[in-house]
Amino acid sequence: MNTIINFLFSAIKFGTPLMLGTTGEIVTEKSGSLNLGIEGMMAMGAIIGYIVAARANDLFLGILCAFLFAAFGALIFAFLTVTLQANQNVTGLALTIFGVGLYKFIGQSLMVSGKYPAMKTALSNMIAEKPLPLLGDIPYVGKLLFSHSIFVYLAVLICVMFWIYLKYTKTGLKVRSLGENPAAADASGVNVNFMKYIHIIMGGGICGIGGLYLALVVNAGGWNDYWINGFGWISIALVIFASWSPMKAIFGSIIFGMFKALQIRSGDLAHEFPKVLGWLQSIPADFYQMLPFVVTALVLIISSMRKKKEGAQPAWCGVNYYREDR
Amino acid sequence: MTDNINTVREPLIRIAKRGDIKRGKAVMLYTFSVLFAIVIGGIFISFIGVNPFRFYTEVFLGCFKSRIYFFGLIRTIMPLLITSIGISFAFKMKFWNIGAEGQFIIGAVCATAVGLFLADSLSHWLLITLMFVAGAVGGGVYGLITAVFKVQFGTNETLLTLMFNYIALYIVQYLTKVDGFRVEGSRPGIKVFSANAWLDQIGGIDITIIFCIVIVFAAFVYFRFTKHGYEVMIVGESQNTARYAGMNVKKIVLRTMFLSAAIIGVAGMFQASGSATGHQLTVGITGGVGWTAIIVAWLAKLNPFGILAVSVLMGILKKGSEVANSSLGVSTAVSDILQSIILFSVLAFDFFINYRVIIKPNKFTKNIKIALNKLGKNFKRCRPISADGTEIAVNNAYTDIEAKSYSVLLEDNLTVNNDNPSETQEEEK
């Protein structure tokens, strides 16, 4: 039983950055922009957020800076695609290359000069995975759901908040109208460009927090070149899996977290259930690393095979809106 | 008051689509945008305490310092050029193939399989030819899989090709541990080819260079003079038009995507068998070529000769940043940053190629005019601007004949300015 709990616990742990990335991208896509720069914005948020958090020894400041710096990346995207009408695919890719390049650049420069900040105990205590009072004492469930890093609750909170925002508020309705038919939204008095800007920037910032989580919790602040390593891209694919709903994104992320968790927990699972899951051990580690991407590819294919009206991509997602084009 | 009403009716800044732009002007704008990016990059460099002028001298001239660096530069450019040409095939029909990394790897893997297992049983040229074919077919089929799903179900090809990148990466990582591919010993890695499977060299450079020249011209001819190339262009412009004209869109997409990925696969084969990696397949064989190639293809507007020029520029940036890394200690990741800043800048300047910015004359622009006038006058007379001198300078501007003519000139400029948006934009700021 403990093995299963541990496995699911890891699934939630690895699913959290996906949760944030996916929610960020959903907000962006609902407002009618397809930002392929999630990977880059996560990287930007991760490195700046980590450095600030470690230097200042303050988690909140780190989260704020991760948000702001990733939002800066999103601002570049917004300026190019909304104001300057640039191609969204290419701009997003450029943002990814820029963000990941910046992240490697800053990290490597700091490592070379020996100024890379180490995580202090006060900070690692703040993000530690410890049980919540009372709730954490419940057998099994307490360990599974209520002994996570504070980030996990924050991520779930953000998902739920944006789910309510998009689905039940008047502004949320306006946002959705931007994605479906910006001309109609424009005619009804919505400030299209302003709203697009705000939501692209907000979405980018949320992704940045996801990046910071990868830096602080998953990699525990140790520098390597692959903090993000595809999490951003999986997030973009998860948006399709979650059919543009932040609520479904929570569950989708945890499912994808499981594939990530298999990498470290497959041995335990095979030991615990040698008859049923013994075969897990005979699979090379590289295939476990490949698994999330294979599953994502399958999800992409399957979701494109069954076309439903409900939960489809916003009609104008990825298309620039230019008022004088009719 | 009337002024006010007018501004409400007609917005201050209007944007209108441009019909056509003169070639010279477009080239000027693009040159300016690259320079702009280099300036931004320089500011960035100076932030980290490195003299940007020294850095750029290192980057742009470093590759020509010695024979080794120069050969290194050629080796950097060659795979980039071939991959970019490959990508341009798919991009021409607006198929966003960003799976170049994966197709490159699979091409290299297939060529390696042939190179390792048939090395002793075939003559040199037959072996190289067979590796070439294996690379092309391997890469091509890997790309074709994504295209099949795209035409059959409308799967998002951007994300699908991207996932295939990672799958390919882990396949090659797995191969480093598989018998037959694995190098003897405890360290994971893939065997070096026997000399029979090495590419021939011309003057110290792999024969890849011949293929590079051929593929540039072939791509040019293919798009300019063949029926296939024409079909690709129509599909890219409008699939409905293509369908209406009786073209088999699915077939065209599949064929072009296969070609695109096959060319990229060939680049992988050349890279594995060539001297760049020491005649060996490695996990990091692509060196990020698949990503850079997207930038190159886009910057070159998918024109084969443009791709040649841009890949030389990007090659210099990449190799030059390695030189700068060894001499100035600047991280090599700086080349990624510079490349993406250039791309950002060109994407931004594309706007001024496609649109005109028209500023309605109003109080604010008049003030700017006066201010510029004053500035021009001060420059002309080399007079320092003093706190109390400002008022006089402005007044003088309208009494002084010389300054008046200058202001007329400015006014002329502003009215004509409508077709020179970059300037108008700056004034507005």
Can you summarize this structure?
With 326 residues, chain A is mainly α.
Structure report:
The complex is a heterodimer of chains A (326) and B (429). Chain A is an all-alpha fold and 326 residues long. Chain A has a single domain (2-305), classed as ABC transporter involved in vitamin B12 uptake, BtuC. Helix content of chain A is 72%, strand content 0%. The longest helix of chain A is centred in the N-terminal third of the chain and has 29 residues, at 2-30. Chain A is globular. The model of chain A has no long low-confidence stretch (mean pLDDT 89). Chain B is globular, with a radius of gyration of 27 Å. Chain B has two domains: 67-313, ABC transporter involved in vitamin B12 uptake, BtuC (Orthogonal Bundle), CATH 1.10.3470; 361-428, no CATH class. Chain B is built from 18 helices and four strands. In chain B, strand 2 and strand 3 form a beta hairpin. The model of chain B is unreliable at 387-429 (pLDDT under 50). Chain B has helices at 2-9, 23-47, 52-62, 67-92, 100-117, 124-153, 157-175, 208-225, 227-237, 239-244, 249-273, 289-299, 304-328, 334-354, 363-381, 389-399, 401-416, 421-428; strands at 13-17, 201-202, 205-206, 355-359. In chain B, the strands form two sheets. A two-stranded antiparallel sheet of chain B has the order 1-4. In chain B, strands 2-3 form a two-stranded antiparallel sheet. With 429 residues, chain B is mainly alpha-helical. Chains A and B meet through helix 3, helix 4, helix 11 and helix 14 of A and helix 7, helix 12 and helix 14 of B.
Mean pLDDT of chain B: 83
Specify the CATH architecture of the largest domain in chain B: Orthogonal Bundle
Overall SS class of chain A: mainly alpha
Helix content of chain B: over 70%
Biggest interface between chains? A-B, 45 and 47 residues
Could you say what the CATH topology of the largest domain in chain B is called? ABC transporter involved in vitamin B12 uptake, BtuC
Please state the second-level CATH architecture of chain A: Orthogonal Bundle
Instruction: Work out the helix count of chain B.
Output: 18
Number of DSSP strands of chain A? 0
- Large-scale geometry of chain A: globular
Quantity of strands of chain B, as a count: 4
Quote the CATH topology of chain A: ABC transporter involved in vitamin B12 uptake, BtuC
